[in-house]
């Protein structure tokens, strides 16, 4: 009897809570519907499709792990992984180093510093297609401004986008042009560090390079951690810039065929949605693994103020 009473009381409390929060649920419902429709449904659908031969033109059938087996023997698949890893290993460290260096220069209270912060942030607002067109013009081997400037000092400019050995470093250079958002995040992190640490260091006679290594960088590690995670995720998903530069071909010699470009080709050019879904889940697993490793290691090198 007592158990029934408790059950009835529990049900009434749940109904009362739902009735009390009815307005809140009403406002949250559009977001929940959007989450289910645009995130959860595609996520579940893609993992199901990865085990089928589904194409946009036909329903397909269940093939088990065949798509994943076929990927293991796909030369373009492995080439796209190599190109993506090459880009990530070069771009992520350089972007963090350059962003931090610029942030240290911009973290001053001097007059007019806001103009320079805006100047470094503006390239992030340029559409990627327009950015590709600008760089194609600048790096043209015949009449590009970069090679003309190099020729003026007696240096023969390389075929930036026309050589498979130069194409990926050139793409890294183009991508570094738009690190303004990372710079601003570092600036915000620098301004969040309490002045008390620097005042105490000044009293102890610490020099500028000592405060940089002993105070600034350790207390900036949470921001560095965030930018590292976002940089890795972004570099593994690089798509728009190389696609605009090559028209989706990945030329020259497939050196700019990146992983997401190959996923896009299989899904919307070859119409092999099941195959593309398998590729997408492999990418998801790779990014999740790297993120988990970085999160696990962060306990050893990420320091928070007050700890």
What is this entry, summarized?
With 307 residues, the protein is mostly helical. It has helices at residues 2-20, 22-49, 66-72, 75-106, 113-121, 128-138, 145-152, 167-176, 180-192, 195-203, 208-236, 240-246, 259-269, 273-301.
| CATH superfamily grouping of the largest domain | MetI-like
The ordered H/E elements are: HHHHHHHHHHHHHH
Poorly predicted runs are: none
- Count helical runs: 14
Give an overview of the whole structure.
The protein folds into 2 domains: 2-49, no CATH class; 71-301, Orthogonal Bundle (MetI-like fold). It is 72% helix and 0% strand. It contains 14 helices and no strands. Helix 6 (128-138) crosses helix 12 (240-246) and helix 11 packs antiparallel against helix 14 (273-301). The longest helix is centred in the first third of the chain and has 32 residues, at 75-106. The model has no long low-confidence stretch (mean pLDDT 91). It is a multi-pass membrane protein. The chain crosses the membrane at residues 24-57, 77-106, 118-138, 171-190, 211-233, 278-297.
């Amino acid at each position: 009897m007592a158990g029934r009473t408790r059950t009835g009381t529990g049900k009434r409390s749940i109904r009362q809570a739902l009735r009390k929060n009815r307005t809140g649920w009403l406002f949250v419902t559009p977001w929940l519907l959007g989450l289910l429709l645009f995130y959860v449904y595609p996520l579940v659908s893609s993992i199901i499709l990865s085990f089928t031969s589904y194409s946009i033109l036909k329903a397909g059938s269940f093939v088990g792990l065949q798509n994943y087996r076929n990927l293991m023997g796909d030369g373009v698949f492995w080439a796209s992984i190599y190109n993506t890893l090459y880009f990530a290993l070069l771009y992520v460290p350089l972007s963090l180093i350059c962003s931090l260096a610029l942030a240290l220069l911009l973290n001053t209270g001097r007059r007019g510093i806001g103009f320079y912060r805006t100047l470094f942030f503006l390239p992030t607002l340029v559409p990627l297609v327009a950015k590709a067109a600008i760089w194609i013009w600048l790096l043209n081997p015949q009449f590009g401004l970069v090679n003309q400037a190099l020729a003026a000092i007696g240096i023969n400019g390389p075929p930036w986008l026309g050589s498979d050995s130069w194409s990926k470093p050139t793409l890294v250079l183009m991508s570094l042009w738009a690190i303004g958002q990372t710079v601003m995040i570092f600036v915000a992190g620098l301004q969040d560090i309490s002045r008390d640490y620097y005042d105490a260091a000044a009293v102890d006679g610490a020099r500028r390079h000592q405060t940089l290594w002993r105070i600034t960088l350790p207390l900036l590690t949470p921001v560095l951690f965030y930018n590292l995670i976002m940089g890795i995720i972004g570099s593994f998903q690089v798509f728009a810039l190389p696609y605009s530069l090559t028209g989706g071909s990945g030329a020259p010699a497939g050196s700019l065929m990146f992983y997401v470009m190959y996923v896009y080709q299989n899904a919307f050019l070859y119409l092999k949605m099941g195959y593309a879904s398998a590729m997408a889940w492999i990418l998801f697993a790779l990014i999740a693994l790297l993120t988990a490793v970085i999160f696990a290691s962060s306990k050893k090198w990420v320091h928070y103020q007050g700890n």
